[in-house]
Amino acid sequence: MRILLVEDTQGLGEAIRDQLQDEGYAVDWVQRIEAAASCLRSTDYDLLLLDLMLPDGSGLSFLQQLRKKRSLLPVIIMTAKDQIADRISGLNAGADDYLVKPFDLDEMMARVAAVARRYSGNPNPNILLGDLQVNLADKTVYHLQQPVELTSREWAIFETFLQHPGQLLTRSRLEDALYAFGAEIESNTIEVYISRLRKKLGKGCIETVRGMGYRMPRG
């Protein structure tokens, strides 16, 4: 999953970015609304983590503009404003969730995962997919009732397929789930991870559509 983080406080931004990356997410971190708007014009994101008080404007106004453009991007607001009226304003502007600073990073991760599940159409963290049993919250996978260990990047690829069952995903779409801006990408990286997932989860877990991309069967 690729996340856009908009936070102007250096220490907090670094902590959030590092936590998300440790969990296998690709993160682009910017500190201004102008930079966030530029990122959204050029890249498809799965989630926006948005501070409200930014150097060049209001995050709330930015969110309102996104919703006026009919953007369906999931948004979690992060702010020190803790009054009930502030929360109501954020939710009414189109936010999916609201984190009051200072917040626990583990709680943030749980909220990120919950919002992502809702938008994937499956709020239940438990998924049965053929011979696979998956818990999205715990990031655990069982194949034929045996536990399977996935690396953070293997999980990032696998989770992307789980969020788009039956859909064709191009190589560039899968790369977006792994890499932030500026990261070097080797030409065969996706093929390597697909091969590893097939070895661990069964050859039929991911189909190749020649010249187009990959697809995970619906079950």
Secondary structure blueprint with pairings:
Layout lengths: L1 E5 L3 H13 L3 E5 L2 H10 L4 E5 L1 E2 L2 E2 H10 L6 E5 L4 H9 L4 E4 L4 H15 L6 E4 L2 E4 L4 E4 L2 E3 L3 H12 L7 H8 L10 H13 L5 E3 L3 E3 L4
Helix pairs in contact: 6-8
Description:
With about 220 residues, the chain is of the alpha/beta class. It has eight helices and 13 strands. β12 and β13 form a beta hairpin. The protein is globular. The model has no long low-confidence stretch (mean pLDDT about 90).
Using brief descriptors, characterize the structure shown.
219 residues, alpha/beta, 5-stranded parallel beta sheet, 4-stranded antiparallel beta sheet
Give a short synopsis of this structure.
This protein has eight helices and 13 strands.
Mean pLDDT: 89
Radius of gyration (CA) equals 18 Å
The low-confidence runs, each spanning 5 or more residues with pLDDT under 50, are none
End-to-end C-alpha gap: 21 Å
Q: Which structural class do the helices and strands define?
A: alpha/beta
